[in-house]
Specification:
InterPro entries: At5g01610-like (IPR036758), DUF538 (IPR007493)
CATH topology of the largest domain: at5g01610, DUF538 DOMAIN
Oligomer: single chain
Number of strands: 10
Pfam families: DUF538 (PF04398)
Keywords: Signal
Largest sheet: 10 strands, antiparallel
Order of helices and strands: HHEEEEEEEEEE
Number of domains: 2
Radius of gyration: 21 Å
């Protein structure tokens, strides 16, 4: 009986040790937001709520996953929609071949296909046209449903009037 108790105790201690080790390893892995920063992008180009991601560091191919689609309006007139899975290719200062991200301009939904960081500006391209925004507008991630107008948002983003009318 004493031997069974000690075996049970060893089993419980081992389980607790390996469980805490797994949590520590999990929490040490970088988030999708820190991966963005490692490629010189601000976290705010992704809304809050990414639950997982995968990245092939040799090709730059990535997927970011949300529990559901994510939509919100920005101060000004833009509406954004992120599907539950977004994908593309990431490299230093450039996201290309994006899928799963749309912006509503006037009455038309357009796919954002490329994002390029140029110094202190971000250029968002929908293929035929693009718009530039200051990096400062992406220091915080927007929240699904309310964007930057949520009660807990500290920054008022996209306060300037930008438009997607300049040619690429």
């Amino acid at each position: 009986m004493k031997s069974q108790m000690s075996n049970l105790l060893i089993l419980i201690v081992s389980f607790l040790f390996f469980s805490s080790l797994a949590v520590a390893v999990e929490s040490d892995s970088p988030t999708a937001y820190s991966i963005l920063q490692s490629y010189n992008f601000p976290v705010g180009i992704l809304p809050k709520g990414v639950v997982s991601y995968d990245l092939d560091t040799t090709t730059g191919k990535f997927h970011a996953y949300f529990n559901d689609s994510c939509s919100f309006s920005l101060i000004g007139s833009y509406q954004l929609n992120y599907k539950s899975t977004i994908s593309g290719y990431i490299s230093e200062n450039k996201l290309k071949k994006l899928t799963g991200v749309k912006v509503k301009v006037l009455f038309i939904w357009l796919n954002i296909v490329e994002v390029i960081r140029k110094g202190e500006e971000m250029e968002f391209s929908v293929g035929i046209t693009s718009a530039n925004f200051a990096i400062q507008e992406f220091l915080e991630s927007p929240q699904c449903g309310c964007g930057f107008e949520c009660k807990d948002s500290k920054l008022e983003m996209f306060g300037r009037n930008h438009s997607l009318v300049s040619s690429s």
